[in-house]
Amino acid sequence: FLFKDGLAKATAEGDGLACNAPTGKDLDFTIYPSADSAFKKKDIRLSITDSNGKPYKYLLYDNGDNSFDVEFQLKKEGEYWISLMVFNKPVRGSPFHIITAGVKENERIAKQEAVRSERRAKLLERKKAREELAKKLRAERLKSLDKRYDQDHN
């Protein structure tokens, strides 16, 4: 009932589980039960540790809808592990491996992503413009064919 393939019937989602997380920023993720399961805060086992095994503090909030939010902050660059279990069974993906980067590295990555996003937007604009032009040319061609048909059959 509460387990499938040896895993807890729950999922964890959110930016706090992203592989490349920023240091010194608030991070979070949410724990959701599957449709046919339920659990309480006391049923959750969670640990956040660095590569040396040093534990990090987190806050666990009951959202009142059978989901739970986890908030934490990783202050140093490095590798971290988030182990998440429900009823002593791991949640799919646990332990989650997080690598943090410094603010400057994150800013560089964000700038690169902004440039990529802008390029994608421009490509989409050009694609739309080409599609509109093709649509217009098809309509003009059909109009021309209709006109020729009318001339031939009158």
SSE string, helix = H, strand = E?
EEEEEEEEEEEEH
| Structure classification | alpha+beta
Terminal-residue CA separation:
77 Å
Number of helical elements: 1
Shape: elongated
Look at the structure and give the mean pLDDT: 83
Helix content: 25-40%
Q: Please summarize the sheet with the most strands.
A: 6 strands, mixed
Percent range for β-strand residues: 35-45%
User: What low-confidence regions span 5 or more consecutive residues with pLDDT below 50?
Assistant: 1-5
Supply Rg.
Answer: 26 Å
Characterize the structure shown.
It is a single chain. The protein is an alpha+beta fold. About 30% of the residues lie in helices and about 35% in strands. It has one helix and twelve strands, in the order E-E-E-E-E-E-E-E-E-E-E-E-H. Strand 10 (about 80-85) and strand 11 form a beta hairpin.
What's the gist of this structure?
The protein has 154 residues and is α+β, with helices and mostly antiparallel strands. It has 1 helix and 12 strands.
Structural key phrases:
154 residues, alpha+beta, six-stranded mixed beta sheet, four-stranded antiparallel beta sheet, 32% helix, elongated, disordered N terminus
